[in-house]
Amino acid sequence: MILHKGETLFRQGESGPLYHLKRGLLKIVRVHEDGSQILVNVIVPDEIIPHHSLISPNPYYGTAVALVTSEVEVLSQKEWYQALEQDPAQCRAIALQLQDKLRMMQQRIDQLTEVSPAEKLRKLQRWFHSYIAPATLTDVLTQEEIGQFIGLRRETINRLLRASSAPSAKDDDDNASQ
Fold it and tell me: E strands within 25-151?
């Protein structure tokens, strides 16, 4: 199945199959009762989601939306859970996938607590660049979502983005001498 940027794969609270992201990126947003949304996760190629349903079925925790054109394989719940019961190696594979996701989340927490706001943004831009180049971070996420993802206010993200795109004093001197 192909999803284009902005299309929804599943909605928070619904129940359904698991999905394997073959290529592209998805965002998982949590919708609150007042309608506000918060970005809680970004899904990268080769992940099977939702993570919390890999061992037993549960309603979707959030809403999955394509950040870029993405290819998704639908996995039958019945076949998935039967395979788990019949093949212990499948359980180990799931444990390893969850371990990898936990490590990624631990790295994200380290990023949030150890670096300056500008460095947080630079690290996030570099990480996204490896998946979406030549597009930029702001081509796929709003400033509000970027702020939610790295623990900064939208206004701070706006200021940092403007500062990083403004010509430096050296650039001004170089242009004036030409």
Answer: 26-31, 37-43, 48-49, 63-66, 70-75
**Structure tokens of 65?**
């939306």
Q: Can you list the positions of beta strands (E) in the chain?
A: 2-3, 8-10, 18-23, 26-31, 37-43, 48-49, 63-66, 70-75
Q: pTM value?
A: 0.83
Q: Is the peptide bond before 167 cis (omega within 30 degrees of 0)?
A: no
Q: Which residue has the higher pLDDT, 78 or 66?
A: 66
For CA atoms 56, 59, 62, 65, the dihedral sign is: positive
Helix (H, G, I), strand (E, B) or coil at 61: coil
> Do 1 and 72 meet the contact criterion of CB atoms below 8 Å apart?
yes
Tokens found for residue 168: 């430096």
CA distance 50 to 19: 7
Q: Read off the pLDDT of residues 3-13 as tens digits, 9 standing for 90 and up.
A: 999 999 999 99
